[in-house]
Amino acid sequence: MKLFLKTVKTAVSCAIATALLCCGCGAAGAWRGAEENPGTAQRDGGHADSAGHTVGEPWQYADTAMGTVVQQTIYTKDEEKAEDFAEQAMEVLRRLEREQISWRLDTSEVYRANTYAGSEDGFLLSEELSVLLESCQLLWERSDGAFDVTLGAAIRLWNIDKWAAGEAVEDFLPPSEEELARALATCGSQRMRLVREASAGPLRLFLPKGTQLDLGAVGKGLAMENLNRLLIQHPDVTAAVISLGGSILTYGSKPDDSPWRVGIVNPFDTSDSIGILTLEGQWCISTSGDYERYVDLDGVRYHHILDPKTGAPAVSEVRGVTILMKDGLLDDGLSTACFILGPEKGMALTEQYGAEALFVMADGRLELSEGMKQYFTENQNRK
Ligand code: AMP
Ligand code: MG
Fold this sequence. Notes:
binds magnesium ion, alpha+beta, 9-stranded antiparallel beta sheet, binds adenosine monophosphate, 26% strand
């Protein structure tokens, strides 16, 4: 377990909040406190086993993958089983990046697909990426083009992957209008063709020369889907919360049946929370905000969510948007789309997917979908 920074839990809220606060100021962090639980009977009255672990309390692990801090809180009786699960989860995330979604690693499917842009034969996708890109194309249509996985050239131009929250990026200069126009000419999901060769099975992807996929807006969603499947394969793990920067997966029930309490970061002060979601069982929670990755220059904030119409950081009345639903992939995709669309169009979109939405507006107002109200408690002392 060398790679893991393992903390046997003694003060869960404190440990997680601290770690995720770091996450909030780090490369891709968006969340504060995966679980803000005021305490349980077991915690206060539990007894320690021979390893010093309080019975009924979770095992915790922190590590990095996919460019973000991964926090795992795992409920299982046995430390060995917890470690085994935590290691497998990290391998799932690293494999996902290495073999499927990285635009940078030449071992990944997205990298290979991008090298086939302009080829007449196209690129035969795996079943998994076929399903993924089909969902992405539908989301592009339904979001009126706000969500677009073909923005690779524009994203490279801004060099977003080099940005972290608020850290100075040496030599940052916004691209010129000519550069933007050139990159934009290669972007747009209308240029992407997915062709089914048989009645079922994988699709063949056709991209014109220069068009590049970037799956940054759904990577963590895909990760949540994979981790949820892994949890189902591990019946010994009865409950878990896994936080990956801007996305959090909750699973199962705690030994004392108390609900999950997930804090949502306050975009105006990322050390604060805007409120808490109280949830039972399995959920995916994704947030997109202008405080996750950005550069401030001459009073302008350049953030990592681009408006496909301009190729530049979206000018939005929204500072942050949180989507709550069972499906991880769409959860992550919808949060990105909704940041650009704003509450009115965004809520109409999330309704089509049966998802709930919470918008934090630039003037501090909160806009919640009707269904979100039953889960959300506002922090009355928020900054
Ligand atoms: P998220 O943090 O989930 O909102 O995703 C943001 C990431 O998605 C960025 O870092 C880019 O890699 C990519 N991206 C930026 N703008 C868009 C967009 N309009 N549609 C799809 N992906 C985008
Ligand atoms: Mg997203």
